[in-house]
Amino acid sequence: MTLNKRLDQIELILADVVQKTDRLIESNGRILEIALRADSNAHLAARGVASLTIEMHRRFEKVDQRFEQIDQRFDQQQMQIETLRQEMNQKFVQFEQTQQQILTLLLDRLK
Q1: Which of 18, 31, 43, 67 is 20 to 30 A off residue 61, Cα-Cα?
Q2: 59: enclosing H helix or E strand
Q3: How much is the CA Rg of the chain, to the nearest whole Å?
Q4: What is the DSSP string of 16-52?
Q5: pTM of the predicted protein model
């Protein structure tokens, strides 16, 4: 085989290698673009999830505070009801005593 024929064969092989290398570079560029978009989307999603998590924690804290306030109000209402019950019992006792005194006075006057 002559030198020119060998060079022609090598030239064809090199052209094929260069063409395939160019395709690989182009494919790698597209893959890199897709990976960067996916990474950007993942970061955006992660920020969104973090923001939602923070917001949910803040709202749960508010709900917990509201429940604590309601619990305190309920305790206050129970104490007020208990105080009123005790006052009513005292008034009933006083009423019974007064009623008994009136009956005693009436009986004494009737004698």
Answers
A1: 43
A2: helix 3-110
A3: 47
A4: HHHHHHHHHHHHHHHHHHHHHHHHHHHHHHHHHHHHH
A5: 0.53
